[in-house]
# Entry
Amino acid sequence: MKNLLKFSAFLFGAALVLSSCGGGERSATTGWKYNDTKWGGYEKLDYDGQVAGPNLVLIEGGTFTMGLTEQDVTYDWNNIPRRVTVSSFYMDETEVSNTDYREYLYWIDRVFGESYPEVYRNALPDTLVWREELAFNEPFVETYLRHPSYDNYPVVGVSWVQATEYCKWRTDRVNEMILVEKGILNLNTEQKDEDNFVTESYLVGQYQGDVRKNLKDLRTGGERPVRFEDGIVMPDYRLPTEAEWEYAALALQGNQTSEKDERISDRRFYPWDGNTVRYQKRDKYQGEILANFKRGKGDYMGMAGNLNDDAHITAPVRSFMPNDFGLYNMAGNVNEWVLDLYRPLTSATLSDTENHDLNAYRGGEFQQMELDEDGRPVEKDSLGRLRYRYVTDEEAATRDNYKTGKVYNYLDGDKQSQAYYATGEHTLVSDETRVYKGGSWADRAFWLSPGARRYLDQNKSSRTIGFRCAMTRTGSPSGNDDVGGHQFNTKRKRGSRRY
# Structure
């Protein structure tokens, strides 16, 4: 709620002030005036910083030990502890709920239903994931996704591919809402097929929309649409990387001994302190279960009259105690998809090199926008999105920082690593296996540890897997009240000229 109020204040009260830097402010390197049409109209914003979108929480980045924090009882040896740093980012306070996902389905059907019904069909969760040979779960097949009783429960039966598509859609809907609330576009619910608001298409001029009032163009004195450089539209919603998810789940800032040093008082096995799944402080909550999980064989919620987690399957997305970042259900309820491709040796790779210990991630397949002969983006596709193509190995060969366009197997599955995955013969690992984390209502306590990891084909789904979204943080890692870096007062040398 606090973040939503801040976001509303941003939309209704914060104006884009291009002229506030004017009044004679000049470039520190050329002396030319900013924001002045007579001086060419170069715009320098008085920018207040990125704000958190709906349901997002700022996760201040930092260093931590990524990997298992307790015994590897599965003997997979696929998550060796190693030190990494994660940049600041935003993350959903909760898992995506059924009503959130149904809003997505409703929009798809309204915009693409007549011409491209397959888009709607491809987005539908697999409700048959509830079926089981020796269990009567048929009522969940019919009710879990659509009945209002489960509105605020996490959506399940969604594949990694479907979750990724949801993130793209959410990016466009949030940015469209921002432009409407700022009076730049009029609300338009008649969008159809390719004539719908897609952030990238709008920014390159391939979608205009129902314009209410554009921004002043200081170069020409006329008007212009919003540009990315204006800082109005937000970065993309996406799945969090495995490193981001694990860092956010542990929330080790809660165990920082003092704001004056970098010491952590204790490691964590779970998103809370201690090695037990029960609340330990001596108050009215003492002994309460801290997550929705399977306590033992055949025990999903305890005994009638004193249910231990009060949830036979999933629980509402704002159930249980949030962690020290304010995130709900980072252990239990449903497992969550993360962005990464699964490889068992990734942790060993990170332990042996210092080149990949910032924002560690496996799954890169580099792309670039398709351009015409004049260097402009080619016409958008039938769904209104810009067209991209993958970078070839030949194009990457002359680079110093990467040498191939698809780096799925880098140091784990390539010649250099001497690892070989014969998919379908003796492993299920392939270029379509993605990591999921967090444990679920049907898992034992071991899987609640943020360091635990499992994988599933990106096109498959489960009744125990859902997801939440993340967003990159731009600018200062600590938030908008801090510009970043240490600032010291210094005296200007005599004779220096100040405009």
In short: The longest strand covers residues 335-341.
